[in-house]
Design goal:
The structure is a homodimer. Helix content of chain A is about 30%, strand content about 25%. Chain A is built from 18 helices and 31 strands. In chain A, the strands form 8 sheets. In chain A, strands 3-2-1-7-19 form a 5-stranded parallel β-sheet. A 5-stranded parallel β-sheet of chain A has the order 9-16-10-11-12, covered by helices on one side. In chain A, a hairpin with a 4-residue loop joins strand 22 and strand 23 (about 345-350). Chain A starts with a strand and ends in an 8-residue tail after the last helix. The relative contact order of chain A is 0.09.
Chain lengths: ~575, ~575
């Protein structure tokens, strides 16, 4: 008998699963429903439509060959029926039917299924604040949002915009508006730094510095209280610290999985109201699959259920569901949490747990952040790369890595290499030190920055030196009046002269001169050493140790990290 | 008692192991000897000095901070003695001494050791052909070679050069000479295509096409017989097919590990005369370590001893040896074989086994090569990427991946992600389909090309379609007079018109028109479908199958692969 499949949700996972199922089993009677008009669009591309990098909105719902993916396309080319503008109202698991309403006619009917796929996605969280319903308050989820935002910019209606929320969508939107439209953008983020859910503070500061360098105002640790309007339109945003002018507001305060249909029919739910699925991407009802932004999955690192709404996971999961709908037994292992984002000059990427995540999940963990050139130091083209590695103490198991660099693709290379290993093995620090990534001078250093991250974590775990972060160094410096620390600048001769001229506490002591000058270093106080990246200061520390000076801390990432975080001014 | 360590070899692994050992155990009495004058230089940078991208030769033997790594540097800053211009003559394992000769004074002496490190490297293979000793016949291993080659170019002595050998060094040298010095370069390679030891033929052809596009003459399947001279200087190269003019010849015909010292003292030797080591990087004598280009290690994929002389492996191994010299127990897992190279516009990278390696190692393997854009198709900046995946049939175990793209760093990202998994797990095709690499439109596609490589291998292994390579398609086309195959061009309307106008055998049948036109496809002959990358042709194949047309082959990589191999002219 011909199998009946109903798929609820027409973006990313839904169409992917449907196409795959039909490819494997062309006889399937498959119906996809979606309550919106437009389906199967690349939601991740919306910021690039806003910025103008993508010219026409249709590009986001077209194949590689400019064929628009509308219901007719799927019927004709893929062999299944799409009913857009059709809302799923309820699932009757006993009768195996979905109650749907045609939003055009208002007519309701029951769709029978043998297998059901929930691809209902997630919706942006709307803050319950006054003014949230004003004209020109947008989210950035649907094609229509992007179109309206861009039209407002094109028509010259927007000189100031406020983004509420400093996560992925918020920052991509900020870059799009500032870069293309010269809009003065402010990002208001309640957390203490940007992307705090997915980044450690140092990399969050680097993100903020890149935005500020391009005239985006970053307001962290600031709560949005109200959106104010004039004649029904947005006029500004009131936070707990200030009032910001705005003719346009984008709410990017996170997502809420659309799990209500599943919950109402009694399926097992996971974190944040997402549908819990097993490795075959089945919900607690084996005839109902779920995936993408409405589903929760096992976090491979913690072993616990987690939620990560990313288009790439949706697509890969869609293929698995399609295979299994057609009788296959493919599995999806869960997720480690790999992502990347491009800001202005800076790219940021990550995989696995941040130090905060790790500790919250119960790991006794440390993290170290290294800075190194991404290519051979003698090769003319190269960029700095910051990589933070998160490690469990006793086992030395690597739990995650986060990084930032202007070399976007090169950063992806390092993070993805670790992501793959995290996904299918439980690497230790030694295994990252030995990670066999490709090398040639135009691509990498022979001892590559990703290996060095492992090496430094190894040294810190082994107690070979006491590490402080570049942020901590800055803080120690600011507290120098009370802590009496002896600060050493171990960079090459001449570096730091301005600081040394101004402050007697700043001691220029280049690594090369240390063999002759170590007696200048006091033995009765703590020493803090800084260099350009943390490597020369490490050698300085070892050299001092040979001479019995052991109360020494080494600033990881050095001046490069300080500069990238925009903290250089705090030294002056 | 203070431990005595002797290290033989002063490039890459030797200094790295020595520095690490001294960092962990500053009391070590360590002596490094090297028969050359210059030590601790970045040999991988030599082509970039030849090309002029690196201005001064000292950059290759300097730290990040322009400090030259000479014997004094190591003594003063790192705490060990370097004796350059000193040759190791013999190892007495019973007495635990190394007989050395000072090449300046001729004086010989015995250096006692508790632990010995063999970091003797490899030497270029000199072909035993007449003329190999002529002036201006070089290898590219030492600083002096690079200096002499560049001087010859700078002085305008070189209009034509011949590179003997189409491997890494040969191709990097070819690019350097042609790119910077406008030298007319010919590469003579005995094998049927470039980099045949480490690449499948299709990617070897892509490498050749990139070189030819930049006026490098590529002579494959051609044996060098003689170098001819005039007044003691090179004048040309005679192959079994032609005589090439040349004022400069670079021999890049592979490397021979310097294993003689080890062999003479009875250590266990591995493939190609390299020193066999265990996971602690100890030779068969536990007091003698070896690593880098003189050592053989376990190939993780085959489980058998292998040899891979790469600077990146040397550096990582150096750290392990340094740790173990200082009493540690770190291990090195072996290698999977990850590398990358930048030609003119094209970068090539690989990890694990090629299809030929896999079959030679006894695997019943297949390979498929996919072509896809490296970023979201709607994102304005993007490049094609070719990825070949090698898979064992029954187990579906992934054995290797090779790729080519103009996006050098992005290619590295895909290959390194697979490299990490190959190193620490035994991934199947499904695990590459699910590989959680980072996604955002400026970095990747939601269903990324690396995942697609897994997907296509899955489909081929499952017998979902019959794949042929783009090369095989071209061959079928050339044999069309006898094979009677029906050729379909499934690209969008209009593509392939020139071919269709010229040849009645070339049928333009865009995927979109196939639902209405499938009856035009004969059922009594084999069908071969081509599109731009292999995706539309796959959908065409599935659509034909629905209508009972099943004798169909699909050209993987499509026209993109044909173009990148420079085979487009063979269709015309």
């Amino acid at each position: 008998m011909q199998q009946k499949v109903v798929v609820i949700g027409g973006v990313a996972l839904g169409p992917k699963a449907s196409c795959r199922c039909l490819r494997l089993n062309p006889d399937t009677d498959l119906t996809l429903i979606d309550e919106n008009n437009f389906i199967s669009y690349g939601g991740c591309g919306l910021p690039y439509y806003v910025s103008g990098e993508i010219q026409a909105l249709d590009a986001l719902r077209s194949t590689n060959y400019q064929v628009v993916r509308d219901p007719d396309f799927f019927a004709r080319m893929k062999g299944f029926q799409v009913r857009n503008n059709t809302r799923a109202l309820a699932i009757d698991r006993k009768a195996k039917t979905v109650r749907v309403r045609d939003l055009g006619t208002g007519q309701e009917s029951d769709l029978p299924y043998d297998k059901l796929v929930l691809a209902t996605g997630a919706r942006p969280r709307i803050l319950p604040i006054p003014g949230a319903d004003l004209q020109n308050v947008f989210t950035l989820t649907h094609l229509e949002d992007a179109q309206a935002i861009r039209q407002n910019c094109e028509q010259g209606h927007v000189t100031d915009a406020v983004i509420i929320g400093g996560g992925f969508i918020g920052l991509e939107a900020a870059v799009a508006l500032a870069d293309m439209w010269d809009v003065h953008v402010s990002v208001v983020e309640m957390g203490n730094y940007l992307m705090g859910q997915v980044l450690p503070s140092n990399l969050g500061l680097m993100a903020a510095h890149d935005l500020r360098q391009h005239n985006v105002q970053v307001c962290t640790g600031e709560k949005t209280l109200q959106i104010i309007g004039q004649d029904g339109k947005v006029a500004g945003v009131v936070t707990d610290k200030q009032t910001l002018k705005a003719q346009l507001v984008i709410m990017a305060a996170g997502f809420i999985p659309n799990g209500e249909l599943a919950q109402a029919c009694g399926l097992e739910m996971g974190p944040r109201g997402a549908i819990m699925v097993d490795e075959y991407l089945r919900s607690s009802d084996p005839d109902i699959y779920a995936g993408g932004d409405c589903a929760a999955m096992r976090n491979i690192i913690t072993g616990k259920p987690g939620y990560l709404p990313l288009g790439s996971l949706s697509n890969r999961q869609g293929r698995i569901i399609g295979t299994n709908l057609a009788g296959g037994q493919d599995t999806f292992p869960g997720f480690v949490g790999t992502w990347c984002i491009k800001l202005f000059d800076l790219a940021i990427a990550a995989t696995g747990l941040t130090i905060d995540h790790a500790r919250n999940a119960g790991f006794d963990a440390i993290s170290v952040c290294v800075e190194q050139l991404d290519r051979a130091h003698f090769y003319p083209e190269k960029e700095m790369m910051a990589l933070e590695i998160v490690v469990e103490k006793g086992t030395r198991r690597v739990l995650g890595m986060q990084g930032a660099s202007q070399n976007a693709q090169g950063l992806k290379a390092r993070v993805d290499a670790v992501a793959g290993v995290l996904q299918y093995a439980k690497p230790t620090v030694l295994e990252i030190s030995n990670l066999e990534v490709g090398y040639a001078p135009p691509f990498a250093a022979a001892m590559d920055v990703v290996n060095v991250a492992g090496n430094v974590a190894d040294n810190v775990l082994a107690g070979r030196f006491q590490a402080i972060s570049a942020q901590e160094f800055v803080q120690l410096w600011q507290e120098r009046a009370t802590n009496q620390i002896f600060f050493i600048d171990a960079r090459p001769k001449g570096a730091g002269k301005a600081l040394a001229d101004k402050y007697s506490e700043w001691h220029m002591l280049p690594l090369e001169e240390l063999p002759d000058r170590f007696r200048e270093v006091p033995t009765d106080r703590q020493i803090a050493i800084l260099c350009n990246t943390g490597l020369r200061s490490y050698d300085s520390l070892l050299m001092l140790a040979k001479h019995g000076v052991t109360n020494v801390v080494n600033a990881l990432g050095g001046m490069q990290a300080i500069k990238q975080m925009g903290l250089e001014t705090k030294l002056q």
